[in-house]
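QA checklist item 7 of 12: single-chain prediction sanity check.
[x] sequence parsed
[x] length recorded as 644
[x] structure emitted
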Amino acid sequence: MSALRPRLPALLLPALLALLFSSTHAAPATPPNTKEAAEPELAPPVENSSLDGELFYQLLLGELSVQQGESGMAYSLLLNAARKTDDGRLYLRAIEIALRARAGDSALQAARDWSKAQPDSAEANRYLLQILLGLNRLDDTVGPLQRALALAAPQERPTLVATLPLYFSRSNDKARAASVLEQALQPQLNPTAAQATPIDRATGAAAWSAVGRMRLAADNPVGVLEAARRGAALDPRAPEPLLLAMALLSPQLPARYAPQRDEAKELLARHFASSAPASAGLRLNYARTLVDAQRYAEAQAQLKIVTQEQPDLADAWLLQGMLELQDKRPNNAEKSLKRFLTLMEAQRKQAAAARNQDGADDEDGADETSEGPLLQRSAGQQAIQRAMTQAYLALSQIAEQRKDYKGAQDWLARIDTAGNAEELLRVQRQRAGLLARQNRLDEALAMLRSLPEDTPEEARGKLQAQVQLLRDHKRHAQAYALLDEAVRNAPQDYDLLYDLAMMAEKLGRAEEMERVLRRIMAEKPDYHHAYNALGYFLADRNMRLPEARALIQKALDAAPEDPFITDSLGWVAFREGNREEAMRLLKRAYAGRPDAEIAAHLGEVLWSLGQRDEARKIWREGLELNADNETLLETLQRLGVKKP
């Protein structure tokens, strides 16, 4: 190799540069002061690297081979150099070369050599683990997983364990991945009770949760619940098992999760009702989970506790305000939303001050071109902007309900929609609603038609905004025409098909409505709204009641917490003559979601049972929720009851 004299390229890759420029370290000499005698400063000792001439040319030839596309030779040269020097940077360079060449086995060999040469290197072990997972060699990951935990500081282990399911997220065999992870975590899952420290218990709770997450990915509901229970038993204060139990409450899970969902509810209810303190953040997550499950009253109860215990938690005020607005309590909602905005403004000022301070601290040479922190900051600012937009829209809606149209416009004017088509649509949709409320419907529709539709999502949102406006103002024929055209262009868009069926019903085209809904059921059997819509239609007209019940029950199996489907089931029970069962179901639906239409049904059942005062009370509440609800007004007129 001594005869080889290749020309040094202008740019070398980072690994080689790092080696060359960190090989020796010597402080520059300080010229002596001739005017004053002073103690000479001792320079730090010179540290010579192991880079000799032969190794230098071996590295150089390896990098030249990379540039010439000879990855096999480059890999061999760099791996050989890594073995000689025991330098982690060279092992990493060999791995990079192998991965770029899609030579997985070679990358694995380099990672194994590195991990063997440096058994205490967390970085070497991490690369070995990631490559094994990339090659789908799940059984071989047990050792690296256990070594990763052994190398981590005890207080860092719960966090590390919680991230492990991410490593297996791309595995095709989720059940096998769950089994391997459970095998690797056996010491953490079953700590010796007599010797277990608080950190051991926290790590064990996180381990059970990690296993539970993998079981959830593997569609193992029984295993998920077991993991949540055992984790919570190991450390009742650990958040991870509770978050796992919350995942079981997701309405997106299939109907077969119903037994585990019920038991998860009990586990969570016991925890949050116990004397053990729960963090405000965890309780807020629980409230969000309850909202997703449409258990609004329970969510509000949790939010009340959060806002009392930690009144500066802005997100809790936003969620509480949105729920209060949904429940037709505009005064409460306004207070909560304004409290949210006040807290957010204070946070923004603090963040700006911190950035200014960081800028001052970094004046002497800090690198402001780093993309990572800037991207993180941008993502955080976007999340804040989305939340504040939600609050402004809600406050505009409250002002609109009070017929304070100028105030509603003022709230909308605070929203910055520049470069954000989604927010532009939301704002213009609200402005269109304001115009329509002032008998300027055609102007409102023209505003919506003028919106851009550069993407399919924008076009769809624009269409839905027009349809909603027409539906709200009973221009059903125009709404039907828009939907009919849209369905012709997108025949597999089942949300549009469902809306078309509902509009056909408004126009008295019952046969067409049923035909469209049955088409949805045939093509997308899990679209539970179609079953509920047809079942309710039949029950409301007191026809084909056994079929109506079967349809509604199928919808409820798919969405057991949906109060509107529960309302449908209660209504079919009433039509069947089972008034006690109807009252039980309708009370449950109304407790889950106070709504004018549910109030109409519940009030009629109470009226039929002779509970006239209670019926009037429910109807009065329904009118306060929505004084224009067609079902409620028709019920009062049919029964000859004056507005309570």
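[x] summary fact logged: The chain has a mean pLDDT of 85.
[ ] second reviewer sign-off
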